[in-house]
Amino acid sequence: VLVSAVLAFVIGGLWYSPLLFGKASATLRGLDPNSATSMALPVGGIVGEFVRWLVMTLILARFMARLGVADVTGALTFGAWMWVVVYTALAGSVLHEGYPWRLYAIHAGDGLAKIMLITTILCLWKPR
Questions:
Q1: pLDDT tens digit string along 43-63?
Q2: How far apart are CA 58 and CA 118, in angstroms?
Q3: Could you give the CA distance from residue 123 to residue 105 in angstroms, rounded to a whole number?
């Protein structure tokens, strides 16, 4: 669980780096994409982000154990369904609050990558 959460955290750092979607995300949020301060999370945000994915990983691990997810195909299918549930709920921000759909798409892609990685690791690396 801890390894999955750490890797999800690392993926988020890469996803929102200037190399991938960091500049687009900053622009869509009305920030200067060329400013290092607009691209960095404060320490509290970093801790919060890690805790958020640790909790998500614990929840996914619990569901997978209860449902008997035993192979990678099952893990990826389960992960895809969990992603659909989470990001369908978040789509309300686009529909009702004027949240930019492109920013939503960046966040949804980040979530998909993380959830698929987490469920795969949890499936492959389980106590014997």
A1: 788 899 999 999 999 999 999
A2: 10
A3: 27
